[in-house]
Specification:
Four Helix Bundle (Hemerythrin (Met), subunit A), globular
Length: 184
């Protein structure tokens, strides 16, 4: 099915099509990006809006994976619940375990370059969606955590200090994550 045809599908149909067609997830990410960013900005306080948005995108991916059409619920209802629940979980955990100081937010999902061509924006979103899907499906929670902090600019020492683990454990987690993502 071509992207033009996929664009015409409902969210429910896209969620089901995502099992066999990765382009469907890209379209859903595009449709839900504004909602996720808006909800993250509303809930930000004890957690950064970018961190909440990251969790929101992970919630969207889990909604796609867990959507059951037979339950007769709209995908939007199910996905928005998954998205918000992921954000609220982060907020609760950040209250128990304060977030590290410094900018370790997730990379932006949307390009800020208004001069970019529409096709390059689509390609960039597809690349990010593929990266996130690979990270969520292949990495352990520790590997994911280390990767996100590293991608946010934190060094091994800072990551080790913030997570309360030895530097060697940070390196091992990062190397395992790189191997898993390369195997692709």
């Amino acid at each position: 099915m071509k992207n033009a045809e996929l664009d015409q599908l409902t969210d429910e149909e896209l969620a089901l099509a995502a099992e066999s067609n990765p382009d469907a997830i890209y379209i859903l990410i595009g449709r839900y990006t504004r909602f996720i960013r808006w909800k993250a900005s509303q809930l930000s306080g004890t957690a950064e809006a970018d961190d909440l948005a990251q969790e929101g995108f992970l919630g969207l991916l889990s909604a796609v994976a867990g959507f059951d059409r037979m339950r007769k619920i709209k995908f939007y209802t199910y996905a928005s619940t998954c998205i918000v629940n992921r954000m609220l979980t982060l907020i609760r955990s950040s209250r128990r375990n304060p977030m590290p100081v410094g900018d370790i937010s997730a990379p932006e999902f949307e390009t800020e370059d208004t001069s970019a061509q529409p096709d390059s924006i689509v390609v960039q979103r597809e690349e990010w969606a593929e990266l996130w899907r690979n990270m969520v499906s292949r990495l352990s929670s520790r590997e994911y955590q280390v990767c996100m902090m590293f991608m946010g600019g934190a060094g091994y020492e800072e990551i080790a200090r913030e997570l309360g683990i030895p530097i060697k454990s940070v390196d091992n987690a990062f190397q395992r994550a790189k191997r898993k993502l390369r195997r692709g």
